[in-house]
Specification:
Length: 123
Amino acid sequence: QVQLVESGGGSVQAGGSLKLSCAASGYILRRCGMGWYRQTAGKERELVSTIRSDGSTNYADSVKGRFTISQDNAENTLYLQMNSLKFEDTAVYYCAAATWEDQPTIRCNYKYWGQGTQVTVSS
């Protein structure tokens, strides 16, 4: 059974930093990537950053230059270093793992999700 457990959230003042961790357990068949998403009340979950199995990374425009995604394959842990935090970064942050799916088309789909960790940035 796959489990993703986030940690590292908390409260910080604007301009501060936090580092989120996501510990993955269980075997993820055909894993193609890991990522961080976030959600605030009344809004849809949005992509923050992803890292594919080949090491390529992707960031939302709103976090480019401030956030860094990384992973420790030996420890099966995903990280998100968040610097220069802004009030608008306040959200619940979710870790996710993607697997290759063949139907209806070949795609790397985020299938597994953690429970989320709250990040609150005060202005």
